[in-house]
Amino acid sequence: MSDTISKVAVLGAGTMGHGIAQVAAQAGLRVTMRDVSDAVLEKGLAGIRASLEKLVGKGKLDAAARDATLAAIRTTTDLADAVRDADVVVEAIPERMELKLETFRAVDAAAPTHALLGTNTSSLSVTEIAGAVKDASRVVGLHFFNPVPVMELLEIVRGLRTSDATIARARGLAEKLGKKSVVVRDFPGFATSRLGVALGAEAIRMLEQGVASAEDIDTAMKLGYRHPMGPLELTDLVGLDVRLAILDHLHRELGEQFRAPALLRQMVRAGKLGRKTGEGFYKYDK
Fold this sequence. Notes:
This protein is α/β, with parallel strands linked by helices. Helices cover 48% and strands 14% of the residues.
């Protein structure tokens, strides 16, 4: 497997996908971003443009670098076209195992045999996803964090058959993207999702029990523990539906301590999913 990385295919143009595409292009890599429709791709590109403009406005990026980043990204709705000459493929599609398996089967049929195959899953089994390809040794979890251009961490997840060479290559990719990496075993929730949802779920239970207001719970964690965001603010950012799906998965895999709070399930049923819908534990301007 070649160590050279110059072309990256990102499958998915949503919040995570377009963030990954942006940081790869900013790092000087050629990027192909793929999604199911031109409308979704255009929305992803709009997100990248807005993110880059913020960086320019803050003096962290000049106009030439902004333009070079945008020029390095092409889009397509054709998966085979996206991955055919990629050195790295990063899947960033919805957290449904059947979708990921279908996608990785298609990637395996079209991507070069040297390509590193990564999944941005935050909780699903990397080992199971790797079962969709002939050579499972080149599949690895590449768990980025939202917002990708800002967050420093890349959690690298070693599946049961992930090779040492693949881990080394994933660490090299993290360095190239300006991220700090940690390597964890493929165990439900990995390290970050398991700890993050446990804290978030307990904060929701406290709100449910009337222990304190959402604002005071978040302020306590920010000022008392130096968290940059409170657990309820973070749940709004990630999406209540995403947090619920992770909790349900961990409840099945690990047991009762991850049972989702009733309030969380009620809010998801009511369509209060956080920032993306304009209301979660807080209200937002749409």
